[in-house]
Amino acid sequence: MESGNDKLIEVRKKIDLVDEQMKKLFLERMELADCVAVIKAESGEAIYNPDREKAMLERLAANVEPKFQEPYIRFLKEILSISKDYQKKRMLA
C-alpha cells in the first residue's frame, strides 16, 4: 500500500515531466516570438494588438474547466507579457 509520501513523490515526478514539456514549448514559442518581432520591425506593425490578444484569450480559455479558467487566463497573460517584452527588446536591438 502506497503511503501519502509515495503518492506525493509520484505526483511530483509527473509534474517534473510536464514542466520539461512546458519548457520545450515555451522555448519554441519564444523562437516564434522572435520571428514575429523581426517581421513587425520590418513592417512597422505595433507589438501590441489588443483585438488579437482578446480573441486568443477567449478562444483558448473557452473549453477550460471552470475551476482552472481564471488561473489559465493569468498564465496566458503572463506568457503574452513576456513575449511582448521580448519583442520590444528585440526590435530595439
Please provide a written account of the structure.
With 93 residues, this protein is mostly helical. It has three helices and no strands. The chain has helices at residues 4-43, 50-61, 66-92. Helix 1 crosses helix 3 (66-92) and helix 2 (50-61) runs antiparallel to helix 3 (66-92). It is elongated, with a radius of gyration of 18 Å. The protein starts with a helix and ends with a helix.
Short description:
With 93 residues, the protein is mainly α. It is built from 3 helices and no strands.
Give the end-to-end Cα distance, rounded to a whole number of Å: 58 Å
Query: Roughly what fraction of the amino acids lie in strands?
Result: under 5%
- State the order of secondary-structure elements, H for helix, E for strand: HHH
H/I helix tally? 3
Low-confidence stretches: none
- Structural class based on helices, strands and sheet pairing: mainly alpha
How many beta-strand runs? 0
Sheet of most strands: none
* Average of pLDDT: 95
Taking all Cα atoms into account, the compactness measure Rg is 18 Å
Coarse shape: elongated
Helical content band: over 70%
